[in-house]
Automatic annotation (TrEMBL):
<keyword id="KW-1133">Transmembrane helix</keyword>
<feature type="transmembrane region" description="Helical">
    <location>
        <begin position="75"/>
        <end position="94"/>
    </location>
</feature>
<protein>
    <recommendedName>
        <fullName>UPF0056 membrane protein</fullName>
    </recommendedName>
</protein>
<keyword id="KW-0472">Membrane</keyword>
<comment type="similarity">
    <text>Belongs to the UPF0056 (MarC) family.</text>
</comment>
<dbReference type="GO" id="GO:0005886">
    <property type="term" value="C:plasma membrane"/>
</dbReference>
<dbReference type="InterPro" id="IPR002771">
    <property type="entry name" value="Multi_antbiot-R_MarC"/>
</dbReference>
<dbReference type="Pfam" id="PF01914">
    <property type="entry name" value="MarC"/>
</dbReference>
<keyword id="KW-1003">Cell membrane</keyword>
<feature type="transmembrane region" description="Helical">
    <location>
        <begin position="44"/>
        <end position="69"/>
    </location>
</feature>
<feature type="transmembrane region" description="Helical">
    <location>
        <begin position="185"/>
        <end position="211"/>
    </location>
</feature>
<keyword id="KW-0812">Transmembrane</keyword>
<feature type="transmembrane region" description="Helical">
    <location>
        <begin position="146"/>
        <end position="164"/>
    </location>
</feature>
<feature type="transmembrane region" description="Helical">
    <location>
        <begin position="12"/>
        <end position="32"/>
    </location>
</feature>
């Protein structure tokens, strides 16, 4: 039971670190500038529902995707781990998460629906790093792994919605420096998760190909 709880927390924290709803809240406010509170909530709801659908599809179809493109699990874990670790290292250096993009004037002029789809759902919320993380957690292909991964991401989507809905108060409360500190902390967690994925991939490759045996 303790192992299951620990795994659930690990999956949730992995998603929390890479989505970083705290750092993405100012971006959301910029993209929805000019919208009313009700419109912002609708935009957040659509973006997060689409993100959830994307992640659930990749979790469910992971094995099919691997088979279709001839991808092995060790290779995916190594590549995905490098990608996640690079995002983490970039955040640690004080850079922004690759998905944290400042809105252009063109983005701001888009309708709420367009903003909800891109850039919010893709690539800010369900970008390559998030997809790689989700597929890694669900890579065993068991129903339990699928349910845990999907449920953890759904819970994070709900939390992100709460952050987005109260975004202006959150940014005022935490401040720019607070957001920077949290972003660097999330970067450290991401870097560690990425390295763990790489190590798991290397161990799997050694076992699968009999390297060193």
């Amino acid at each position: 039971m303790e192992g299951l709880v620990g795994h659930v927390l690990s999956v949730f924290m992995g998603f929390f670190a890479i989505m970083n709803p705290i750092a993405n809240t100012p971006v959301f406010l910029g993209l929805t500038d000019g919208q009313s509170a009700a419109q912002r909530k609708r935009t957040a709801t659509r973006a997060l529902l689409l993100s959830l659908v994307i992640i659930v599809v990749f979790c469910a179809a992971g094995k099919l995707i691997f088979s279709l493109f001839g991808i092995t699990l060790p290779a995916f874990r190594i590549t995905g781990g490098i990608l996640v670790a690079l995002v983490g290292f970039h955040m640690l250096q004080g850079g922004e998460h690759s998905s944290v993009q400042h809105p252009s004037e063109e983005d701001k002029d888009d309708s709420g629906d367009d903003v909800a789809i891109t850039p919010l759902a893709l690539p800010i919320l369900a970008g390559p790093g998030t997809i790689a993380t989700a597929m890694n957690y669900a890579s065993a292909g068991t129903v339990t792994d699928f349910v845990i991964t999907s449920a953890a991401f759904a819970m994070l989507c709900l939390i992100t919605w709460l952050f987005f809905s109260s975004g202006e108060r959150l940014v005022t409360l935490i401040g720019d420096n607070g957001i920077k500190v949290i972003t660097r902390l999330m970067g450290l967690i991401l870097a560690v998760i990425g390295v763990q994925m790489v190590l798991a991939g290397i161990a799997g490759a050694i076992s699968a190909y009999g390297i060193g045996g």
